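**Entry details**
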Amino acid sequence: MDERNLSLLIQTFSIAQRSDLFKNLDIDPSDKRIIESKLKESKKIYEFKTKPFESKKDNYALMKKLEQGIYHQKQISIEYIVKDSIEIYEVKPYKIVFMNENFYLACEVEAYNFSFSLYRISKIKEIKDSSKTFHKNGEIEDFIKFIQTPFARYQKGFRKHLIDVLLEVDKSKAFYFESKKFLSSQNIIETKDNGNLLVSYQITQEIEIEELVKRWLPYVKVIEPLSLKNRIHKELRKYLSLISI
């Protein structure tokens, strides 16, 4: 394996160990020893900070139930922590998604006023199997691949409803946007004469991009949509009024 692929394997293996997912990996013992040896070697050189904040160390059985439900396309019932109470949801599990250092269960949901949801796996207390099976919705599978943040919102024909965002990035911070995609839809569409970048994104709702914009203020300016620009301005004015008291 080349260095890049080996690095990816080591990071994946490291995440699996910390999250008790290693038990689920069907790896030959001799291969496992080789990977463990490489992992020890890598720790002399690398310090991996992208680790799950939420570990399922004590809940291997729950993870196995989720895997089986996804693999066999079986509906399941989950007991889920909502604030200080437990709610029960009937769901069709599609994928376990690792995002923003947390694990989520991506599900189709029929009994509520929405048809898709991401559930934090650390908040699932119990899973009950059912004999019901389901066929996957191709558009929901496409949406799961498209998801960029935990705030992604699904609606039927979601690609028709995507919001186009245009940001102007100050030239002093252009390097960071040229060298890294902060969301998978990021696209640099123009480098202006003054060195500033025009960067576009496609999102499902404005909250998905707000954190990124706020993180880079005052070096990032919202050009479109105006609703996002006005909301950021309103929050800034409120913040400034509070600190001036």
About this structure: Residues 75 and 111 are 12 Å apart (CA to CA).
